[in-house]
Design goal:
Blueprint (H helix, E strand, L loop, with lengths): L4 E10 L2 E11 L4 E5 L6 H9 L6 E10 L2 E2 L5 H7 L4 E4 L3 H4 L6 H10 L6 H14 L5 H6 L7 H13 L5 E5 L7 H18 L2 E5 L3 H7 L2 E6 L2 E7 H6 L4 H9 L14
Parallel strand pairs: 3-8, 3-9, 6-7, 7-8
Antiparallel strand pairs: 1-2, 1-4, 4-5, 9-10
Pfam family, one: ABC_tran
Family: Belongs to the ABC transporter superfamily.
Subcellular location: Cell membrane
Length: 267
């Protein structure tokens, strides 16, 4: 079976300085990879590279990033843009900052959806309100009519999650998706993301400091330090019996959530 996503010996530089070194990883349909490590370890840089969002200073200088057999590193911008949204979606760490402050949430969701499919404003609003309800935004109609600055940070984060999930992408890249949310809403968001995997076979890369989220969601874990892979393997193995000294140190330094059910997506 051909992998959905494959990184081969990827090195990423900013202003010609390497920040990610020789990373390999592979993701199949429906798999979830958790990426952990301290701040500045290169976690977010990897998923930005997949999206082509490194900016003018950033560049993949070595290696290849394959999505469904196509190398996104060499892909023309126009072709890559067609993939972003319906095929590859991203939840930003600060979704509020990714939203336009002078346009309503509803307008921005409609524009995002209309870019990739024929859809009426009414149908778009109905789908968005249903998705918002699933991740804890009960007053969806009001949210659609609001500007981002009228919403709390946690509400804007859920709007960003809603936008990324509405088109049922094949690959969802989530950069600290639950960091701005309280524990109850974190649980709802995690459960909805797992349901998305179950219903649509969505593969995910989840960048997080929250080991509880990794434990609940991820099939595999990638541990980074200073842009280098320190450990990569199945979640249960890495979390309970890590081989690398840094991973052991990382696991012992973070609080662990008490388990109330089965982990790894409840499978």
């Amino acid at each position: 079976m051909e992998s959905l996503l494959k990184l081969e010996h990827v090195t990423i530089c900013y202003n010609e300085e390497p920040v990610v070194h020789d990373v390999d990883l592979e993701l199949n349909k429906g798999e979830i990879l958790g990426v952990v490590g301290e701040s500045g370890s290169g976690k977010s840089t990897i998923i930005k590279a997949i999206m082509g969002l490194l900016g003018n200073e950033g560049m993949v200088t070595e290696g290849d990033i394959w999505y469904k057999g196509k190398n996104v590193v060499d892909m023309p911008e126009k072709e890559l843009r067609r993939l972003l949204g319906p095929e590859i979606a991203m939840v930003f760490q600060d979704s509020g900052a990714a939203l336009c402050p002078i346009r309503t949430v509803g307008d921005q969701i409609y524009e995002s959806m209309r870019e990739h499919e024929r859809i009426s404003r009414k149908e778009c609003a109905e789908r968005a309100v249903r998705m918002m309800a699933k991740i804890g935004l009960k007053d969806g109609e009001r949210v659609l009519q609001s500007y981002p600055f009228e919403l709390s940070g946690g509400m804007n984060q859920r709007v960003g999650i809603c936008i990324s999930m509405l088109q049922n992408p094949s690959l969802l890249l989530a950069d600290e998706p639950t960091s701005a949310l309280d524990v109850t809403i974190q649980k709802q968001v995690v459960e909805e993301m797992l349901l998305m995997r179950k219903e649509y076979g969505t593969a995910m890369i989840v960048v997080t400091h929250n080991i509880g989220v990794v434990e609940k969601m991820a099939d595999k874990v990638l541990v980074l330090k200073n842009g280098k892979v320190r450990e990569y393997g199945k979640t249960a193995q890495v979390l309970t019996d890590p081989e690398d000294p840094y991973t052991k140190e990382l696991m012992s330094s973070v609080p662990r959530l008490k388990r109330t059910g089965t982990g790894n997506g409840g499978r």
